[in-house]
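Researcher: I'd like a candidate sequence for this fold, 147 residues long. If you have to choose between options at a position, lean toward the conservative one.
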């Protein structure tokens, strides 16, 4: 992800750095889940389960905190999202760790790891690599965070 940082303009990079500092209220250089949740819930009713899932997906080194480079992933996803993007679409973009536009079994498995559940046969039947659209339909049928 460090290589991706260089593709952002200085202005965007400064905004990402400032947002990171604003959320990191204890100034330890990491965003804890409580800081992440508090910022997202500020004046808004959010689905806490979805927030936990997003945090889990962003925390790629699984240290229960977001480093600056991990935090930048949410900016990348949100900059690519449109106003019409559903939560399921954004979730698919977060799950697509390598950004190839498809979801492979490892990326799908990450979502099930969060729920501490084995990947069901219905997910395995989707194929080795599937389009985000197909997985978005699967999410809608099995999870539907848009409600």
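Model: Candidate sequence:
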């Amino acid at each position: 992800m460090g290589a991706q940082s260089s593709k952002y303009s200085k202005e965007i990079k400064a905004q990402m750095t400032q947002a990171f500092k604003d959320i990191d209220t204890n100034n330890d250089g990491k965003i804890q889940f409580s800081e992440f949740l508090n910022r997202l819930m500020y004046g808004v009713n959010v689905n806490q389960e979805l927030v936990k899932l997003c945090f889990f997906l962003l925390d790629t080194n699984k240290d229960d905190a977001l480093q600056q480079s991990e935090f930048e992933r949410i900016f990348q996803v949100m900059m690519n999202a449109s106003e019409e993007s559903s939560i399921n679409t954004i979730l698919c973009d977060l799950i697509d760790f390598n950004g190839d536009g498809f979801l492979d079994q490892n990326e799908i498995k990450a979502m099930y790891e969060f729920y501490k559940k084995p990947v069901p046969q219905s997910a395995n039947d989707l194929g080795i690599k599937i389009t985000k659209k197909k997985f978005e339909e699967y999410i809608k049928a099995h999870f539907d965070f848009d409600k």
